Amino acid sequence: MFAGLPELGISNGEDLKETLTNCTEPLKAIDQFQMENGILLPTLQSALPFLDLHGTPRLEFHQSVFDELREKLMERVAIIAEGKDEDRYGKLEELLEKSFPLVKMPSIQPVVMQVLKHLPKVPEKKLKTVMADKELYKVCAVEVKRQIWQDNQALFGDEVSPLLKQYIVEKEAALFSSDLSILHNFFSPSPKTRRQGEVVLKLTQMIGKNVKLYDMVLQFLRTLFLRTRNVHYCTLRAELLMSLHDLDISEICSVDPCHKFTWCLDACIREKFVDGKRARELQGFLDGVKKGQEQVLGDLSMILCDPFACNTLVLSIMRNLQELLSQESLPRDSPDLMLLLRMLSLGQGAWDMIDSQVFKEPRLDLEVVTRFLPAMMSVVVDDHTFTVEQKLPSEEKSSLSYPTTLPDAFNRYLQENRVACEMGLYYVLHIAKLRNKNALQRLLPALVETYNDMAFGDIFLHLLTGHLTLLSDDFGSEEFCSVVFDGFLLTSFSSKENVHRHTLRMLLHLQHKVLPSYMETLMKTLEPPKQCSEQVKELYTQLMEKLEAQKKSPPPPDETPSLDLGLHPVTVPTTASTPTMSL
Questions:
Q1: What is the Cα–Cα distance from 233 to 419, expressed in whole angstroms?
Q2: pLDDT per position as a tens digit, 475-513
Q3: pTM of the predicted model, to two decimals?
Q4: Which of 379, 411, 307, 405 is closest to 350 using CA atoms?
Q5: What separation in angstroms does the CA of 213 have from each of 144, 202, 209?
């Protein structure tokens, strides 16, 4: 406990033991020891007997003086470090030399740690001592740990790894949340709110102003993204940079070439829309990538691969298509649309670019613009034509029935092109938002086969299940249930456990709306296999309990959710012959 005192020429317990062992008059020896090692203040000696009269033990007195002096010393260390004296760090190093031998003494340790914390460059020998001792490493300040980490990537990786795992667990928990709503979904929190998350704040603190540590974290994120293809690492890459931006850490922001691009995109994500002015800014950054600096495209593609960025880009594309429809213009004639598609394509190609280390913007297949988008628009026109037809007087109606098939180009590009597939999926969400049952029944079967099974990804299923709550009354129809379940969800639930979970999540909210006979069949089909996860079993049990409770008491009346989505309305002139897909 008192290791290090002899090095400083101060007697410890062992010295007292030796003195008492070898002396002939123990009381005199104790007095002598107290005189030599007590507080060396002549006027104090005559005052100490007064404390004895009050029954105050000497230990209590010395301890209180010691605590007071320690606090004063620690305050003084902070004042010296924050001062303007050129030799301030020299003074602190001198104090460190004197106090470091006592670093393992609990009463002195806070002083040593305070000195270490305020030294911008701790002597390497001292750092190694702290790093080698688990207890010392645990209690030292993050400022000291940063100096240790910057030369020990493996140790830093051990510290960061649990935080990165926690981040992914939190994101996946949000996607499988028991809340099912179109208004409060995965994309609802604002960027600033997300940056207040525990993991982002901890990583920001661990990095401080240290560029080397920031680069290490980015390298960890790239490696994990490559290893797992998990897009949430892309979200964290953007959130971390913007968290440092919020704190004005110019030492890092000024050297990250993605900073201004990410800042501009962050403002678009906040608005859930890329307006013309910001679109031109973003284009300027992309066009400004100089020869020899193409590697920055890898990081830009990661930032655009963030699901929050992707969501904003596709929502903006949908708004753009709406305007083009109202103006009867072609997609290829819109520079804004082409830029949005360019950014979406760059984000979708992030993994391939980082994996191949070929830093070149992927070429956008022009047929997505000339074939796929017109095919998608023809679906909108079909729907509009049918709606107008239904409003005509009976004598003017034709025998037109609602189309059930989709254009070949639409199906083909859903399966073969990831940018087209992303737009197709968001169009399905848009149709669900409009509560357009006919169009949804036409589109859902096409999602069974999509590029890389994107329609069975967690983000799309999270959004789709939330949107389907708007059509809750239609689940009373066997035809609609058959399209949603037999025609889409149940085609892959046995091979993809996440689909099983999302289906059960949705049924927990809509079970009272589903046709009872169909619900019975569904429960048999969805019964969890033995080797499935606990989450699936738990959801199934909750659903069973809900159904049992429902048999005993009738369900409460539904409250229709408000559809105020906080999107800016696009004012466009429309006529009876103009198909619309208003958002």
A1: 20
A2: 999 999 999 999 999 998 888 999 999 999 999 999 999
A3: 0.85
A4: 307
A5: 13, 13, 9
